[in-house]
Write a structure and sequence with these properties.
Chain lengths: 152, 490
């Protein structure tokens, strides 16, 4: 069967400690990861971390897509990584550091394990701009993430 | 007074003022056994023939020497000027600190049962060290052993803001109407309290007797004694209730409840969200304890215990409603080294915070005045040096982040005094106090520090701070406070 896009949402928000959090609606606890792996994304129970390259104030753009099966590849991104998450309930959204919902929820399908594909662009450019003495502020959305999930 | 000795020797008490004024003014003093059977705050108490006195008191304030019951209650806090919840918490912390956020804190798995997960989820549950906390079916033997050995503070013994215990003595003295011989009944018991953050504004209180003693002509093994907690209005906000009744057994029944892992009785304390305050719908409730014979209670404990209940939506997901024990101060602990002496995974951040707190003048940005950086955990804690949480992406957070950026890049007002660069590969700029605090870099009343630290350490420390806020339920601004404790080793 051809993959069908079940839902999409996007938002811009500032990473905190280089981290953006995407959650399943039933998330409860932060996931423990080994940051020495230097990954761009880490998945776990009802939670996904997206890692920014810069610790300085800037807004990153996140687009979250839910598919029925593996979607076709997309081009124009600088980096790509994969991970897994388990969703207790089939809905996700971008979280404002677990303090508020930073995007609307999207349906993902049945509860269970999901494959996660993360594309990113501008992560290193954002860090370069942070250290550029000619740049007062990092422009919004220089750093961009595309997150696509589908059931395993 | 030695707590262990007093527990072993038995003890008791209650509202002293109520006890004393309960004696009828016309009653003739009765010559009682010498020495007196009851001494309160050093003063012998005459109990008229045919009358009884009873009460409950934390065990550390009572001593029974086989003939006399000595009670040294700390005074009735309801009669004294009310301390605000933060001041109370600092007093509690001073007398019974706990290691919140510490790897030394054991997982009370029986007390804080994790969510039900299958083996298939093992990969994803490794990091979920705690889930929303809820009361256990009964206190674990590990907790019972911990409470038995722990030193009680002014407001009891704390494992965390969600796990509390305190040893009590219930006592009753009756002077026989004819012979004037005293009868003494003592019931040592321990209360175990569990807050919860699983979406219910409740606390569950368990009680188990540890020793039952009775002597004299006016007691019978079939005498019925009951125990119950209650909400009190003084210094509290409305909405607290104990919907369950007094738990009553005969002396024989209470004695039978002592051995083994069972024998607990329990109550729920509930908090009405609709009577809460502000956006968090916060409430502060005080609870006390009582013992009564045959369903009658004459006095309540003179020590009360503060609960905080709230419905803060920013403690999100399933944890938007909760109650916890408030008489102790949270602190996040960062260790420089692991137990085996190796570098901890937050080493650079711990080292930076330690320098900021102990040698602020050598930190960046340099200042012409002696730098003052708050947040250091001390005992007693310093109410003038606390950290208070602010909202992510709120105005304070954004201002803190912007100020940090200028100090890290030697821009603006920090052009000459900011952090020298460039950083080594794999380093990031860390700031203290945290951007998520009122006391962060943009606060004009405090100084701050920035330093280059290992990026992995920075990520790990940031994640631990987020988890700490959530697990210890740190509310925004002056609704809460916390400290940072840097230790050498886990």
């Amino acid at each position: 069967m051809n993959p069908v896009l079940l839902g999409v949402t996007e938002t811009s928000l500032p990473p905190d400690n280089c981290m953006i959090i995407v959650v399943g609606v039933r998330y409860d606890e932060m996931i423990k990861v080994d940051f020495r792996n230097r990954r761009m994304c880490y998945g776990g129970l009802d939670m996904l971390y997206l890692m920014s390259e810069t610790e300085f104030l800037h807004d990153s753009h996140v687009r979250l897509e839910a598919w029925t099966s593996e979607p076709p590849p997309t081009k124009g991104w600088e980096e790509e990584e994969h991970t897994r998450i388990r969703l207790t309930e089939g809905r996700m959204y971008v979280s404002g550091m677990m303090e508020f919902a930073a995007s609307p929820e999207i349906p993902t399908g049945a509860p269970g394990h999901y494959h996660v594909q993360v594309y990113a662009s501008g992560r290193h450019e954002a860090r370069r701009l942070a250290f550029d003495p000619e740049v007062e502020e990092i422009p919004p959305d220089v750093e961009r993430f595309l997150v696509r999930v589908w059931p395993e | 007074m030695n707590r262990r000795l007093s527990i072993a020797a038995l003890a008791a008490a209650t509202l002293v003022t109520q006890l004393i004024t309960a004696v009828p003014a016309t009653a003739e003093p009765v010559e009682q056994a010498d020495p007196p059977v009851l001494v309160i705050s050093g003063n012998p108490v005459d109990i008229p023939a045919g009358e009884s006195r009873e009460g409950v008191i934390p065990a550390s304030y009572a001593r029974w020497d086989g003939k006399t019951l000595y009670l040294d209650p700390p005074g009735d806090p309801r009669l004294a000027e009310e301390a605000d919840p933060r001041t109370r918490a600092l007093e509690g912390e001073q007398t019974a600190p706990f290691l919140t956020g510490s790897p030394e804190e054991p997982a009370w798995e029986e007390d804080v049962p994790p969510g039900e997960l299958t083996e298939d989820d093992a990969e994803f549950t490794e990091g979920a060290t705690t889930f929303a906390q809820k009361p256990p079916r009964r206190p674990s033997q590990a907790l019972v052993a911990f409470c038995k050995d722990a030193k009680s503070g002014k407001y009891g013994i704390f494992r965390s803001r969600f796990v509390w215990c305190e040893h009590y003595v219930g006592w009753r003295i009756t002077i026989n109407a004819r012979t004037r011989l005293p009868s003494v009944t003592l019931i040592n018991h321990t209360y175990y309290g569990f807050g919860r953050d699983d979406g219910r504004r409740q606390v569950k209180i368990f009680m188990k007797p540890t020793f039952v003693f009775s002597i004299g002509p006016d007691h019978r093994p079939s005498d019925q004694y009951g125990f119950v907690p209650a909400c009190i209005p003084g210094g509290s906000t409305p909405g607290c209730a104990v919907p369950t009744m007094m738990r009553t057994k005969s002396l024989t029944g209470w004695r039978a409840a002592i051995p083994g892992a069972g024998g607990f009785v329990s109550w729920l304390v509930t908090s009405d969200e609709t009577q809460g305050h502000a956006a968090e719908k916060w409430s502060y409730h005080k609870i006390v304890f009582a013992m009564g014979k045959s369903g009658l209670i004459s006095a309540w404990s003179s020590t009360d215990y503060m609960l905080r209940c709230d419905s803060a939506t920013y403690i999100s997901g399933a944890r938007q409603k909760a109650c916890l024990f408030h008489d102790v101060v949270p602190r996040i602990q960062y260790a420089l080294f692991d137990a085996d002496g190796s570098r901890s995974d937050v080493h650079d951040v711990a080292n930076h915070i330690q320098t900021a707190l102990t040698q602020p003048d050598i930190t960046y940005p340099r200042e012409s005045h002696p730098k003052r950086i708050p947040g250091k955990y001390t005992n007693p804690p310093d109410l003038n040096s606390v950290l208070e949480r602010v909202a992510y992406n709120g105005p304070e957070w954004t201002a803190n982040a912007a100020t940090k950026s200028r100090a890290c890049h030697r821009r603006g007002e920090y052009r000459l005094t900011g952090l020298p660069g460039p950083p080594a590969s794999g380093q990031q700029c860390d700031e203290f106090p945290f951007a998520t605090t009122v006391q962060g870099a943009s606060n004009p009343s405090w100084d701050f520090s920035v330093a280059w630290v290992d990026r992995d350490d920075n990520h790990q420390a940031g994640q631990e701070l987020k988890a700490f806020y959530r697990r210890q339920r740190i509310l925004y601004k002056d609704l809460d406070l916390f400290y940072v404790h840097v230790v050498q080793k886990h």
